[in-house]
Amino acid sequence: MQTDSFDLQELFQYVLREARAAWRYRWRALILAWCVMVAGALLVFSLPNKYESSAQVYADTDALTNPLLRGVAMQPDVRARLQVVTHTLLSRPNLETVADKTGLSVRASTPAERDELLLKLGNTVRIKDAGTTNLYNITYSDHDREMSQKVVQAFVQILMNDTVGANTAATATAQKFLEQQVQDYGKRLSEAETKLADFQKANLGYIPSQGGSTYFTRLQAAETQLQNLQAQYDTAAAGRATTQQQMRAMAMGSASAGIDPRTQEIDSQIATYQQKLSTLLLSYTEAYPDVAATRRMIAQLKAQRAELKKNAGGESMMGVVSDNPVYQEMQKSMYTTQVNLQTLATQIALQKQQIAELKGAADKITDVQATLQQLTRNYDVTKKQYDQLLERLNTAQLSQDATQSGNNLKFRVISPPLVPLLPSGPHRGLLLVLVFGFAVAVGLGFAYLLHKVTPVFVTPADLQDFGDYPVLGSLGLIVSPSRRRERRREAIGFLAGASMLPMILLLAFAFDGNLARLVQHFFVMGVA
């Protein structure tokens, strides 16, 4: 800590010695500072006034018809269009239009001066956001207050009129192109439909079914159907053989046993009624109606059995079998199976004929199918393209109608440009402060430079550091009263001269406008 304090103290002593040495040239520094201050002030006040005019424009990108037409009409990217419009507003054609319309081009008499004028105009005009979405400020500054307002007004007119007209023309051009394309594809679609219809008429028997099956699919389906019919035929034939075998067995069994199946059925019924009669006699007497009815039914069945036995000798056993209900059902099944076999045989023959025809016309069918697929593919592609173009044309027409009715990028002037009454620049106060600081710095630097050119020893330590000779001591200067008064007057004069610099700065702030007009008038008169 002591070392740091000692170093700072040495630095302070060094600065103090250098300031005392440069103090000898204080008058020269003051005069130079005054010269710089006066020259800088004259230069600042000679700068012409700048008058800035501005307009505030709002870009309406959310028209009321946009939500209603979303999904129906084309929604242009108005925000991207807005960026393009704001970037191309300062293009050279627009700058030339503004310069000619406002009379700004009169200031240039040669092509080089005109190029410089347009370049300066493009650099001076500023288009920037106003802090709110889609709100822009257009500003321009010029030494002529009316010219600044005219330039801003010209740019606003270009922004509001020319861009909308260009958008409408571009929309009309796109719609005309779509109409031409729809007509061309309409003709192609008609030609494709005619070719497809003529081909289908000429090859009616070789065209696939509505399901779109190919030749190989049809052949495979026919062979599969033939296999299914053959399997059904084999199953029916096997069933017929089984039924025939059962019928022969039933006839042979009845003939060998000599038993009448009808007698067996009556005996079964008699046994059933006798069991019922036994059950009733356990609970009721002979006079009970159900008991009497059961006895009568048993008697009738016995009489029927006796009648059958009496007539059994004159009938053949084959007739008995034919009267059997089971045998009759077998005969019905036999007839049905025979009909099914004949039907299946006919279907199998037709299916074999169809397969033979398909195999015989294989080359013709495959060629027809390949050509049909090509014609159909061309027709589908043309029809799809035609439908898309027609849909886009309808969308474009609807979008153009919506654009003309307000669904477009519009600019609204929120604050129109006005003729400025007060200048916006230059900022003479700031420039005067900079001139004052520069003048003081130049004066101090000049005094220090003179000290370095003609140095002196201020303290004995400086003299001892300069050479190897020892310094024995120092003598003070005895100043006379007249010299003291002279020094006092000199110090007062220097302080008065130095204090006048900030006083001049304050007066320049106070009489900024008047001094500017006076200096500019003097320079203009001097030039004239």
Automatic annotation (TrEMBL):
The keyword Iron does not apply. PANTHER family: FERRIC ENTEROBACTIN TRANSPORT PROTEIN FEPE, TYROSINE-PROTEIN KINASE. It comes from the Bacteria. NCBIfam families: pepcterm_ChnLen (TIGR03007). Residues 175-239, 341-392 form a coiled coil. It is a multi-pass membrane protein. Keywords: Cell membrane, Coiled coil, Membrane, Transmembrane, Transmembrane helix. Residues 5-101 form the Polysaccharide chain length determinant N-terminal domain. It is found in: Cell membrane. This is Wzz/FepE/Etk N-terminal domain-containing protein. Residues 369-449 form the Tyrosine-protein kinase G-rich domain. The chain crosses the membrane at residues 27-47, 429-450, 491-511.
